[in-house]
Design a protein that fits this description.
The protein has helices spanning 4-19, 30-38, 47-67, 93-105, 113-116, 123-134, 152-162, 192-209, 214-226, 231-241, 249-261, 263-266, 272-282, 288-299; strands spanning 83-87, 109-111, 137-142, 165-166, 169-170, 185-186. The chain is α/β, with parallel strands linked by helices and 305 residues long.
Length: 305
């Protein structure tokens, strides 16, 4: 039985084969694709998809080999999608992996060195490429061990020098040095709800400070509402939607559909006031039939948090 992540990768490659849009598959690492291939039976009928996935693995291998002998070139920051670099001490890799998982559920890409680099790769080159070319948001995970690493402060220096968005997550240490100018979001505990809410709060703060990233973060916030598995998560994500001044009809209808399909959203009292405000403001953009169904759900929520 293929995992949800494998099914998502297959779906992305299927759409890539139909549209030719490389953006659909660029977020997946060699590790992601290899793991997905290992879950699929060689005799499965979806042969073309697997061949495309195998080709992607080969491309990533050749790229990593080329990076091993070429110095990185600092690239222009791109704002069309969220690409996160999670800087952490090795001891805190489990926290980094959990944050990576949440950001990916939100539709962002997230790089964790100990997770995304295969053992034989020239790992310093891979890290430098993500710092200097790929990522646009630098997130240091500030535990009491962060400053002990010989790499984390160097990563922070590169991120500051390149002009990346610096968005610290405070576990038990305040931002320091050049990171001190950035407002930190606190991670209070290790429950999945906490990770979800922390990532939503962090992205919301970035959107208010960096208008060039608002479009990409609005997409992530909508995905975060869809990915809500608890009432508290739905409350945090629905509140964050109100940070945005405009929604197209397509965007507003997508949110209405999420409300109708996810019982953790339409059943959450913590989400109700935010959803009511959203539909009062943007209801004119929503299909009237969808809006009517949402109104019914919002009047009679199924459970109280």
């Amino acid at each position: 039985m293929a995992s949800d992540k494998t099914l998502a990768i297959i779906a992305a490659f299927h759409k890539f084969l139909q549209t030719g849009d490389k953006g659909l598959i660029e977020a997946y690492t060699r590790t992601d694709i290899t793991a997905a291939l290992s879950e699929i039976s060689p005799g499965d009928s979806r042969h073309a998809w697997y061949k495309a996935m195998e080709k992607r693995v080969d491309q990533l291998e050749r790229f990593e080999e080329r990076e091993a002998v070429q110095p990185p070139v600092v690239g222009r920051l791109s704002y069309d999608r969220i690409h996160v670099f999670l800087s952490h001490k090795h001891d805190d890799v489990e926290v980094a992996k959990e944050l990576k998982s949440v950001f990916e559920r939100f539709g962002a890409s997230a790089f964790v060195a100990h997770e995304d680099i295969r053992p034989s790769a020239a790992w310093q080159k891979v890290i430098l490429r993500h710092l200097t070319v790929v990522c646009n948001i630098f997130i240091p995970i500030l535990t009491k061990r962060f400053h002990e690493s010989e790499w984390t402060d160097q990563e922070a220096g590169i991120a500051v020098g390149r002009g990346m968005v610096i968005a610290p997550i405070k576990v038990d240490v305040d931002p320091y040095g050049f990171m001190e100018v950035s407002q930190a979001v606190s991670l209070r505990g290790t429950h999945p709800v906490t990770f979800h809410s922390t990532c939503v709060e962090l992205l919301s703060g970035i959107a208010s400070e960096y208008p060039e990233l608002k479009g990409a973060i609005k997409k992530c916030t909508t995905r975060s509402l869809k990915a809500s598995h608890t009432y508290d998560q739905a409350g945090a994500s629905s509140k964050a939607l109100l940070e945005f001044a405009t929604f197209t009809p397509e965007e507003a209808n997508e949110i209405a559909q999420i409300v109708l399909e996810n019982d953790q959203v339409y059943g959450a009292w913590s989400a109700m006031p935010h959803l009511e405000s959203f539909f009062e403001k943007f209801g004119g953009q929503v299909n009237p039939e969808l809006l009517k169904r949402c109104d019914t759900l919002r009047v009679r929520p199924t459970a109280k948090v």
